[in-house]
Structure formats: C-alpha cells, structure tokens
Amino acid sequence: MTPEEILQGLYDETLIGNAPRVLELTNEALGMSMEPQSLLFDALIPSLEEVGARFERGDFFVPEMLIAGRAMAGAMEVLRPLLADTGVETVGKFLMGTVKGDVHDIGKNLVNIMLEGAGFEVIDLGVQVAPEKFIAAIEEHQPDIVGMSAFLTTTMPMFKANINALEKAGLRNEVIVMVGGAPVTQEYADAVGADGYAADASATVRKAKDLLEQRRSLVSA
Q1: Where is the B12-binding N-terminal domain (predicted)?
Q2: Radius of gyration (Cα) for the chain, nearest Å?
Q3: Which of 29, 107, 134, 171 is the most exposed place for a label (fewest CB within 10 A)?
Q4: d(Cα 162, Cα 211) in Å, to the nearest integer?
C-alpha cells in the first residue's frame, strides 16, 4: 500500500470502528517509516471529527461514536509514546473524573478519547472521584482544564461541592472547570459556577479549545 492509501484506510476504518484493521494499518504505516504525526493529523483526527459531525447531524448515535473512539484508542496506544518522542505539542492538559457517588464512565471515556485525538494530554482519575482527590491531582498535574462528569441527578450536586473545595484550596482561578453528563444542562452548569458545559463528546472538544483560547488571550493581553 502507498502512504496515501494507508492514510485513507485509517480514515475509513476509524469511521466505521474497525479496531483490528486500524491497528493493523497503524503498524503497517510505522513499518514503512511514516510519521506518527501524519497518521494522527492526516487520518485519525479528521476521521473522529467526521464522526462528531455525523453525530451532530443525527446520522451517527452513541454506539457508532464509541466504536470509532475505541478504534482510534487502539491506534493511540501505539502512537502515544512515539508522539511524545517527537515532541508533538499538546493543545493543553485536561484532568477528568466522574464525581463521588457515581460509577458511570462510558461518556467520560468517549470524551477522553476525543480530547486525546484533538491533541490534549488527558489525565483520567476514573470514577467516584472525591473533592480531595481532584485537588491533589490538580496540585500534582497542574492541568489547564478540569472536567467533572455526572450521570445521575443525585450526584450532580457534587459539582458544587468540588468547586467549593477548589475555592477553599485557592485553586479555583488556576483552572478552567467544565461539567457534563446526561442529566446536566447549561443552566445547571451556570448555577454551580462552572466555566463550561458541553452536551456531547465532540462539543466538549470544541468548548475546551474555545475556553483555553479565551484564557490564553486574557493572560497575554
């Protein structure tokens, strides 16, 4: 296969979520000394962006997004150390966790894959993340954005508890706080004092980039 055919194949197979084939093509490309950045920026990311666009149009649903995301995640396992070696600049650092009392992680994991695909370094704290764990991780990793996920209406109040804890620790102004999850709305995000909210994975990536750009332009102003 030519490099062009490999890139097209990676795009097409990621789009339909054919994980074994995506991995196969990734390894084949590396065997031909193709650049890891090229695989990421010329095939994998555009494919995932198309997945997001189809989801927004209603042509794709959550299962299609998940299998495409998983296909890309397989390729990222191989590419991540190589990209680090080549010094590919990350867009920003994103700390993510499902709040205390909540064990749902499918949506969070999908968001993580999309963020990673868009060039973010993602630190995933998993589920049942207590306020003190968010604080310790912020101090350790110094992320640009903290994402909090809740799937249950009963765990949504943890957003406010976490934000209060950040304020108490003197960290609230150090990070951008984004919230999300099935029952969460923009109104609720505003009420708890979050900086951003997104309804789905592809919207999260766009919102995260917008918030980061705003923050950086304010800092440089």
Answers
A1: 1-91
A2: 18
A3: 171
A4: 20
- What would the pLDDT profile of 208-218 be if each residue is shown by its tens digit? 999 999 999 98
Averaged pLDDT of the chain: 91
- What is the pLDDT, as a whole number, of residue 66? 82
Q: What is the pTM of this model?
A: 0.74
Considering only CA atoms, which of 189, 171, 197, 206 is closest in space to residue 91? Answer: 206
Helices (H) and strands (E) in the chain, counts: 10, 5
pLDDT at 87: 67
Q: Where in the chain is the domain with CATH 1.10.1240.10?
A: 3-86
| Residue 183: closest CA among 156, 146, 148, 147 | 156
CB of 188 within 8 A of CB of 170?
A: no
- Are 25 and 44 in contact by the 8 Å Cβ rule? The answer is no
What is the mean predicted confidence (pLDDT) over 48-77?
86
The CATH fold of domain 3-86: 1.10.1240
> What's the Cα-to-Cα distance from 87 to each of 37, 40, 94, 141, 182, rounded to whole Å?
10, 14, 18, 19, 36
Q: Looking at the structure, give the CATH architecture of the domain made up of residues 93-220.
A: 3-Layer(aba) Sandwich (3.40)
Question: Residue 130 contacts by C-beta under 8 Å, 6 or more apart in sequence?
Answer: 100
The token duo for 144 is 């640009």
Where does CATH 3.40.50.280 sit in the chain?
93-220
**Rounded CA separation 195/139 (Å):** 19
CA angle 164/201/197 to nearest 5° reads: 35
